[in-house]
Amino acid sequence: MTAMVEHRTDHRERERRRHAGLGHLDSLELLDVLMGLPPQVAVPLASIRRNDLNVLRRAPGGVVRFTGSSVTRLAVPVVTPVLAVVYAEQWRAGLERASEFAAYCPRMFVVRELPADTDGLLAEASWYGVGVAVGHGDAPTMVLEPEPLDDWQPTPAWWLFCERVHRHSSAG
Domain segments of the chain: what residues? Predict the structure, then answer.
């Protein structure tokens, strides 16, 4: 079973990181602290908890900028996932694997053909908000559109997922 994540790239952030020699951020603890800071806004050091300051001081160069009295978050996610697509041989496996992306972005799966109980299975996929396409190759036929994540809010785990997508997309 394979999966791909379609995403938008923040080219400015990608270039900023490249020039700073900053790769991928893989510390959930750091991302959690960063999410508590607004990007590109100087935050007084006195307003940040001691433990969080320690985490920020250990951050790689290019993540934050310190002055004598403030810290500014420079890093933002390089990519924003917009759709996870799972390619599966079997319906159930596709639905389960696509559901793993529920906290990060809309998701769907592609199977070669529809099984016998199409109505019931499409109703289940719809219940979970998972889109379905049928076929093989680059142009499968959409049978059920994936639901958008209207009430979604970014989390540190989401940012970590973004970093992993960025790592995989820049490796190829």
Answer: 1-21+77-172, 26-74
